[in-house]
Every structure is written in structure tokens, then in C-alpha cells.
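Q: A small favour: would you put together sequence and C-alpha cells for a protein?
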Amino acid sequence: MAPSYPPAQLSSPAPAAVADEGWQEGFELPAHTSSVARARAHLRSHLHRWGFPEDLGHTAQLVISEFVTNAVLHTDTGRIGCSIHLDGRRLRIEVTDEGTQTRAPQPRSAGPDEVNGRGLQLVGALAQRWGVSAREARCGRVVWAELGTTG
């Protein structure tokens, strides 16, 4: 059984304007390995534009990297949708695919010599919550994580 870690709280609070309005952005990428870096760059750009601190950005980039990588490697989707939602208390990251797989992503135990297999364990350690849900009226799924924005 994988070890359990308490959810991470980030040290920098959300900017004051976020608490009142909340922000969200979405973008689509092709299901290609180069899209992992592009997803990180899009996310970093939006968080910077919203005035968010670097510690949140690093954690959020790791989460979106893991989700996009999994969509590219483990689904038969042609496109990947990414969205970020920000309010005063949390940052929600969602990655959608249009794949036909019926099995939801699950954390797995990677052996000490394995290079892969720890991504969802990292997400579980860093996020307040994360999960997977089916896309309504479409094939595919949504993998999401919520990161706290206060210390």
C-alpha cells in the first residue's frame, strides 16, 4: 500500500482580487508528448498574469504535467483539454481526454528501480483533493486536482 501524506498547503495567499471574482482559463492541446511542456507554459503564464506566487506555480505545473502525460501515454485521445479555475481558497486544475478507456487512472506502487509510476502518488501528496469523473454526454474523462492557496 502506498504511503499517505497530508495535503500540501501553499505558503502564499491568493491575491485579493481573486477572492471577489475568481478566474478561469481553458486551452486545448494535441495529444502529443510536446504538449506536456506547452501545458506547463500556459499554466505558468496564466498564474503569472493573475499575480500568483511562484510556489503555487511550481506545484500546479507538476500536477498539470502528470495529468497531461497520463492522457498522452494512457489514452487514445487526439486532443487534451486543460482548464484552471482560481478563487480565493483554491486552484482547480482539470485535464480532459476523449479516450475510450473505461478504467479510471489509479495510483500504483512503483518499484525502487522503476522510472515511471509515481505521478498520481505525487499529485495525491500535493493536492487537497483529486479525482476522476466521466465527461457528461461524451466519451473520455476529467482528471482534476485542487490545491489550497493559503498557508
